[in-house]
Amino acid sequence: MTNSFVLTRWLLAGMRWLYESIVSFTGMQASYAIVLTILLFTVAIRCLTVFGDIKSRKSSMQMQEIQPDLDRLMKKYQNDPKRMNQERNKLMKEKGVSTMSGCLPLLIMMPLLFMFINAFRAWSNEQMLSLMLTMDKDPQAGINLFSQYKFFWILNIWRPDNLTSSAVLTGEQFWRTFAATKATYIDKFIFYTEHQQALDELLLRMGFFVKDAAGALTLAEDNSVFLAAYETMMGPCIDAYKGYVNGYAVLPILAGATSFLLSWVSMQQQNKNKKEEETSSSNAQAKNMGKSMMYIMPAMSVFFCWQYDATFSFYWIISNLIATAINVILNKKLPAIVERDKQKREAKLIKERN
């Protein structure tokens, strides 16, 4: 088991615990409790990473401030790269600028993004297995459980909010999803380990598994038996929303819109330094890159949220809104903080020289 899977498992375990606690104490409908869980977890994660955001933004503003000096050094020592690097490092040390701190949020947020994708995917798969177990034991209880997954316009919160997905996995989709994961980590799902005997017996009876010569469970080569059994078991849930798509693509659109808003707000501080950018080729390149990301990130957000479950879309939208609020606050507060730090460094340098 890789470290990334261990971290994903911890993240999933934490969200499951919070979700179950909310349902236990409030009696809230499952779909609303899930969204509340995502909200609380996203706020907690953002609180943990906000200090990295502040450090990164300070570093970025300091870098913009010294960029004209860096450009002059590059011109002056363009034929002496070694001397140029020495002078560059000296200048950055004097100004208290770190190149690595600007990358810190990316180094933190990208692994978190993929951890959340994997955690929500695993959680969704577990809910599907839970629904199947319930349908097998008590079809009416299974139908009642399935109805708990409805969230306003979304028929099943564990499925994508788009114009093409059905409210329930088809038998073929279940086969592809779980056949692919069986060889890697289906037996490491938290829910699977908690109900392994019951699930193994169910999936064996349905024809998903067969026993080999040694009596061990292995994936069936032919899925026809399983597909028929799945259609019979899940028929009541499938028929409940037959002919309907799972949603209207509201969440992917909101994800793209909030990603654009976040990118636009992030660009505002750079636009305040227009004079420096006009005299700095590096800042001009950064500005062009920022403009490109304003359109690339929203497109990627729509793409991811169109494909993945609505739970991930809720996380992405909430995360974007929190990040936007943080950026608005930092845009107002950080310039004064950076200026104060600059004055302290200059005063310290003057004192050391004297």
Short recap of the structure:
The protein is mainly alpha-helical and 354 residues long. 77% of the residues lie in helices and 2% in strands.
Major β-sheet strand ordering:
1-2
H/E element sequence: HHHHHHHHEEHHHHH
Mean pLDDT: 84
Secondary-structure-based class equals mainly alpha
Q: Number of helical runs?
A: 13
| Gyration radius over CA | 26 Å
Distance between the termini: 59 Å
Low-confidence stretches: 274-281
Strand content: under 5%
Give me the count of strands: 2
Structural domain count: 2
Describe the structure.
With 354 residues, the protein is mostly helical. It has two domains: 3-168 and 249-353, no CATH class; 170-240, no CATH class. 77% of the residues lie in helices and 2% in strands. The protein has helices at 3-26, 30-76, 81-95, 104-137, 139-147, 171-182, 190-194, 196-206, 224-240, 250-271, 274-278, 281-307, 310-353, and strands at residues 209-211, 217-219. Strands 1-2 form a two-stranded antiparallel ribbon. A hairpin with a 5-residue loop joins strand 1 and strand 2. Helix 1 (3-26) packs across helix 2, helix 4 packs antiparallel against helix 5 and helix 12 (281-307) packs antiparallel against helix 13. The longest helix is centred in the N-terminal third of the chain and has 47 residues, at 30-76. The chain is elongated and about 85 Å long. The termini are far apart. Mean pLDDT is 84; it is low at 274-281.
